[in-house]
Amino acid sequence: MSIVNVENASRIYRQDAIAVKALDNVSVSIEAGEFITLVGPSGSGKTTLLNQIGALDEPDAGRIQVAGEEITGLSRKKRTTLRLWKIGFVFQEYNLIGVLSAQENVEYVLMLRGVPFRERRAETRSILAEVGLHGMEQRLPHELSGGQQQRVAVARAIVSKPAIVLADEPTANLDSTTGAALLDLMRKLNAEHGITFVFSTHDPMVMERARRVIHLKDGRIEREERRQ
Fold first, then answer.
1. Which H helix or E strand runs over 22?
2. Where would I find the ABC transporter domain in this sequence (predicted)?
């Protein structure tokens, strides 16, 4: 079952009166449960495509569906609602709220959904334990290592059981050992829970673990690789 359908998506940015085509008539379908990565040099369009799928931006032409919902042309409010209920995000810079504990950062999305306190607290503790952070629930972000902060970000992305998790260069600020451990954790979550992961990355470690690699160049899909 397709969880993402992108049909003939194009995106043009204006830079000093010059038109830059970040996406050029891109079409791609992503199945539920995939572990997939978008790769390519800077300016290839991989982050733009990820942002389109995540409803952080919208195409100038074409259509995009996520979890059965047409997201092209949605109002800002409806796109925000879509992200809250259907999409989890893991960013390069972690994007944790500095004054909130690890537990509070993770449960924030459940609070926005209106989940009762006891339920969201129990769910948050369970997820933090699953990503290897049992006993660190009350630590603030600055009291955690980079790898631990990114594990909090992963827990926050999956706690609400979204249809898809989008990860933009999630290992960029981590050393190779920590990055490998984080990727193995996400592969485990993918295998055991069927969570769909889509990465945008330069990191060879991500490409090695992906079951499908989509190569982009100059805003177009150049080729694909499928692996067991």
1. strand 18-31
2. 4-228
Rounded distance, CA 223 to CA 147, Å? 32
| Per-residue pLDDT tens digits for 121-140 | 999 999 999 999 999 999 99
Q: Give the residue from 69, 37, 52, 48 showing the smallest Cα distance to 162.
A: 69
Whether 111 and 120 have beta carbons less than 8 Å apart is answered as yes
Please give the backbone phi and psi of residue 206, each rounded to the nearest 5 degrees, phi first. -70, -45
Residue extents of the structural domains in the chain: 2-97+146-226
Residues 63-100 have pLDDT tens digits of 999 998 899 888 999 999 999 999 999 988 889 999 99
Q: Which residue(s) pair with 28 in the sheet? A: 6
Q: What is the dihedral of CA 54, 190, 112, 127, to 10 degrees?
A: -150
| Beta strands across the sheet bearing 212-217 | 87-90, 164-168, 196-201, 35-39, 212-217, 220-226
Task: List the CATH code of the domain at 2-97+146-226.
Answer: 3.40.50.300
Task: Provide CB contacts within 8 A for 16, sequence distance 6+.
Answer: none
Q: What is the distance between the alpha carbons of residues 163 and 93, in angstroms, rounded to a whole number? A: 23
Question: What pLDDT is attached to residue 91?
Answer: 87
Whose tokens are 């942002």? That residue is: 51
Render pLDDT for 25-48 as a digit per residue (tens, 0 to 9). Answer: 999 999 999 999 999 988 899 999
